[in-house]
């Protein structure tokens, strides 16, 4: 099958693209390479790999690429509250309008598997797990655009979405600004972190399990289509302070303190149930502990903030 991935050279795409190619899929990546990354260089060995430098908002390019595509994975997005705040117009046109364009052009037979975010749950009820039936109350521009894009995608018959937990782990197009990645980076290089509002909770998922869930969705599309799926680790609904304690197990010299004053501009606070995706037979392979070990090795190599989105 032929797969089109928009934004396929980004943090997730740089893991997902070679994963799909290794499984024998033909993959075309559309990316504007805004971070000057060379993360897909190793994919050039595959005859089934094609790459187009361009913008996912360019309707002419999308029309051409969709002519010969079975599956569409719209990864292209401005991701994270700080980056979206820096470019509100780009966020709207990339995260939502470009997805609308794909849905308008794609035929009913073409399948769409789209990642969104469980940050759409915003601020959950204390002690109550968010399921796919929980009302969506996004509290950032990023969350709002992804929730609206999900609605557009699921209105088609031939689609499904993955509401990803906060992703962590090493990637050829690294992001050090994601929470687990950031805290481990600080633990390795600064040996300390000051935590604001340490009781705020989130769910987490390793980037390679994100790639695996897309494979799972492709292989089980008929039984899964038409629904959103939370994708995270059931044993990793953790507060920031609990996350720090997990990192401390691997780096005992790591010191973390909660700030007595001040606040985190990111107010997300929720815990998530991943029962629906698990009921389809999907199993995660990467625990939080294994991912922390991986990041510690990775940050022996990486020593600056070049790999952050902002």
> What is the β-strand count?
14
Radius of gyration: 19 Å
Helicity, as a percent range: 25-40%
Examine the secondary-structure arrangement and name the CATH architecture of the domain at 2-168 and 205-233 and 273-284. 3-Layer(aba) Sandwich
Q: Please state how the strands of the largest beta sheet are arranged side by side.
A: 3-2-1-4-5-7-11
Count of DSSP H/I helices: 11
Q: What string gives the helices and strands in order?
A: EHEEHEHHEEHEEHEEHHEEHEEHH
Bin the strand percentage.
15-25%
Global geometry: globular
Based on secondary structure, the structural category is alpha/beta
CATH H-level superfamily of the domain at 2-168 and 205-233 and 273-284: NAD(P)-binding Rossmann-like Domain
Unreliable stretches (pLDDT < 50, length at least 5) are none
- Report the CATH C-level class of the domain at 2-168 and 205-233 and 273-284: Alpha Beta
Please name the CATH topology of the domain at 2-168 and 205-233 and 273-284.
Rossmann fold
Describe the structure.
The chain is an alpha/beta fold. It has a domain of 208 residues: Rossmann fold. It is built from eleven helices and 14 strands. Strands 3-2-1-4-5-7-11 form a seven-stranded parallel beta sheet, with helices on both faces. Strands 8-10-12 form a three-stranded mixed beta sheet. A two-stranded parallel ribbon has the order 6-14. Helix 4 runs parallel beside helix 5 and helix 6 packs across helix 9. The longest helix is centred in the N-terminal third of the chain and has 18 residues. The model has no long low-confidence stretch (mean pLDDT 95). This is NAD(P)-dependent oxidoreductase. Pfam families: Epimerase.
